[in-house]
Amino acid sequence: MRLHLLCSVFLIGLHSAAIAAHPKVQHSERKLNTLDPVSLQEVAAQELRYRLPSYIVPTHYKLYLETQVHTGNRSYSGSVDIHLDIRQQAKTIYVHQRGLRITSNELYASNPNTNLTFLETLRYTEDAEREFAVFAIRRALAPASYVLHLDFEGELRVDDDGFYLSSYLDANGTRKYVASTQFQAISARAAFPCLDEPALKATVELGIKHHPSYKAVSNMPIFAEAGDLDGNVVTYFETTPRMSIYLLAFLVSDFLYTENEAAAQRVYARPNAINQTLYALEAGVRIMDALDEHIGLPYRSYMPKVDQVALTQFSAGAMENWGLCKYREEVLLFEPGVTTYRAQTTITTIIAHEYVHQWFGNVITNEWWSYLWLNEGFATLYEFLGADMAYPERQYRDLFNVQVVQRVLITDAAESTRPMTFSRGATLNAILSLFDNVAYSKGGSVLQMFRLLLPDAAWRQMLRTYVQGNEFGTVNTDNFVAALTEAFDGVVSLPEGTDVERFVQSWVNQAGYPVLEVRRSYRGEMILSQDRFYGNKIVNNDFTVWVIPYTMMEQGDAQDALLEWQWMTSKAVRVPSSLPNDEWILVNVNQTGFYRVNYDPSNWYMLIRTLLEDTAAIPMHSRAQLIDDSFHLARSNRLDLEIALELLGYVRHEREYPPWEAANRVLGYFHGRMRGQPDYILYELFVDTLIGDVFVTLDITTVAPDERLLEKYLRQVISSWACRMEIESCLTATRDALEREVFDAEPVHPDVSAVVYCYGLRTAPTVAFQYLFGKLLGSDNRGERQLLINALGCANDTEQLSSYLLAAIGGELQVNFNAEERLSILQSVLSSRQGVDALIEFLTENYTYVVSLLGPNALANLVQSIATSTNTLDEEQMLIALLEQLNSVLPASVSASARTTASINLAWPSTREGLLLRYFLERYNFQPVQSDTVLQPDA
């Protein structure tokens, strides 16, 4: 499943690499992070209470459903025959169900050579807490095969989970209804009674009765369609392969599709969006072909077809159901002339993510949710590799480090982070909390490290060994270790006393990651040491040890030279070095390993000198790594902040996107701290200096036909900062481009529209705001609507902002926004201080409407965002007044947290970090330059 974080705050959208990653990460941010032994024992005991007994194993489901969804009717009914293998004498059968009404049951004995034999109608009780229907058997069953027949009734849910109801407006404005499914992680039980654990794989035979104006789609092709006496139609599907029940999926709708018959691929969408499906079909075919060749186990050897569906309502973002992948519209549909390059990147990588799941997740599935990284880690890695193989000219794999590795290095540095292999229990919330950055981004990053230890052919053989050896089954770490051990044999030389199991377990069973400290004696040796890296402190008594693979590049080495892997298996080691004292060494080249690297100051300064004088002498991904590592090492007091800042200064010479994206995050952090301070002008001069030489080379409002993808990313980062720093030429160019669209019908190119619309509004006349608002109301494209919502939040006119915020709750402008769009409008204004002030005023007067429309959590999150943007005493007083106004509806803990956040922000200028930054800014005379002049102290 691709966890889709909707980046509603436009500030984040403009100044980050891309739409950040995975949806149910949003479900995972729950406070279940304690790792103390007592709590873990309690979790393990609780988990057993919620697990099915091991003696009951399903082998086949025959499922039949009836729905009248075409009318909007939520009621449905069905029956299911659950074929069971009872493996020990039993008097009880457990079946999962959530919110269903079982109306009848029958138990049969099953013999392959005879018909079913009726045994009895069972008494059963419901355990709502554990979501069990518990059937009691009068006479104990001997180990054998049985069939439990159940009739049941249910209602389509309205929370986008299980079997749920959604809708859309057709071209005539008529509301049409759709019944769809989302079963991961444990919501198949909300649609029909089943045994809802991933290891309990079974085949499924499905029939759905529906109105003839609608069609049913499922994992498998249609086997037959038959008319019923009541005028409805029953669609029967071919039987699925053996699979986890959470991968079952179906859809009942009036959707249309585009098709590549030769590739057995279709893309479904509502009829008034079907013209936006062609790119998803093309990308799906390309990506599947690339993965077939790369893995060497063709998809069609497992499944006969794969469909993709674009849904208007889908909480998961995207889901890999075997043969029927589902997506939110904005991450699948592509409209030429409207969809941006960033959105196209998201569409392409998400398709790759879901398609690689067809092997890693569907053919083989995590044994239990504690091994979720074995599903999501592979999918995260291959969303970039698979997209890159399909479209090599776009260099998608060059986005992996800055969009995945560096981001999760930040979150995984928290004390509360968890190991990759980990369980919090078997309840819905406990399982969903594991769909987090550790399972996805860290899983992908660590797998990338494992991959790069092997030649490409050996890695691909490992994939085949891993899948074929476990196909149609489930996997845990042991299965992965076995395949990797075979791949390493004779190819990778592990250090003495270390095997693949120890190596892998050190990364997947331990929380966090190390920092590798490289200290040169400058007398012929180096001391290497490792410690667990924490983002906010140094811990000297942490004895965690990782088996660390590393590479070294010495000054003067060719970048295409094959680097030798070396290993560190202890807390510290002395390593001989023949490197001259006046030449640098670079470790973990191109950030292949999942850890940070720190050097002694002399080596840092030699690296800085080279970055300033001969930038290209250091590999591109290493340049991005040096920026990211040095900043976070400084923030944790492992490195002098001045070294990190001096290194950052080299980016004035940088012309590649990945290092600039790493710098972008650093600049964004300090901007958030410096805004509102008396010496903020010094920071503006610093940023102007860094971006100046790059900015003058860019045309920020046009796009060349042959422009590289990474050039588009670079232009957006640089032009966003130029306009944010109020460089006149940037504001003028964006205003002029916006006005040409407003007055001359000359459309802004979608690939520059985010910056042009946002910053053009800052100085454009009111009619431009009205134009963009009208464009929002008239758009039927979810991706474009989100972009326009964010752009309108950039306005700095108080009246415009006030009217815009009122539109979110239905003020004088009665607009039919959905709930997500209403919240996005409120969040969008956080991109400027004027917007924050407008939001405070708006919430003071309208908080009751926000709570009733969007819920108390939305209000709490908005308040916390306001606190994060509070930097001055005046702003703090505005926040306190708002908190007092919201006292009756805001939890005390939220108010206390907001006050604490604001207090920390106000105290920051007097902290060590704040003082060092100001000292650095005062010490240097920053001016944009056109030459290779290095930073010089102000005399």
The CATH C-level class name of the largest domain? Mainly Beta
What is the name of the CATH topology of the largest domain? Immunoglobulin-like
By CATH, the architecture of the largest domain is named Sandwich
Distance N to C terminus: 57 Å
- Annotation, overall tally of beta strands: 30
- Largest sheet entry: 8 strands, mixed
Mean pLDDT: 92
- CATH homologous superfamily assignment of the largest domain: tricorn interacting facor f3 domain
Name the poorly predicted regions: 4-34, 929-939
Radius of gyration: 29 Å
Looking at the structure, what is the overall shape? globular
Level of helix content?
40-55%
Membrane topology: Lipid-anchor; GPI-anchor
Pfam families: ERAP1_C (PF11838), Peptidase_M1 (PF01433), Peptidase_M1_N (PF17900)
EC number: 3.4.11.-
Cofactor: Zn(2+)
What does this structure look like?
- With 939 residues, the chain is of the alpha+beta class.
- It folds into six domains: 47-254, Sandwich (Immunoglobulin-like), CATH 2.60.40; 257-358, Neutral Protease Domain 2 (Neutral Protease, domain 2); 370-377 and 397-509, Neutral Protease, domain 2; 513-646, Immunoglobulin-like, CATH 2.60.40.1910; 692-793, no CATH class; 797-925, Zincin-like fold (Alpha Horseshoe), CATH 1.25.50.
- It contains 29 helices and 30 strands.
- The strands form eight sheets. An eight-stranded mixed β-sheet has the order 5-4-8-2-1-11-14-13, with no helix packed on it. A five-stranded mixed β-sheet has the order 16-17-18-20-19, with helices on one face. A four-stranded antiparallel β-sheet has the order 9-10-15-12, with no helix packed on it.
- A hairpin with a 4-residue loop joins strand 16 and strand 17 (265-269).
- Helix 4 crosses helix 6 (373-390), helix 14 (620-635) runs parallel beside helix 16 (657-674) and helix 21 (766-778) runs antiparallel to helix 22 (782-792).
- The protein is globular, with a radius of gyration of 29 Å.
- Mean pLDDT is 92; it is low at 4-34 and 929-939.
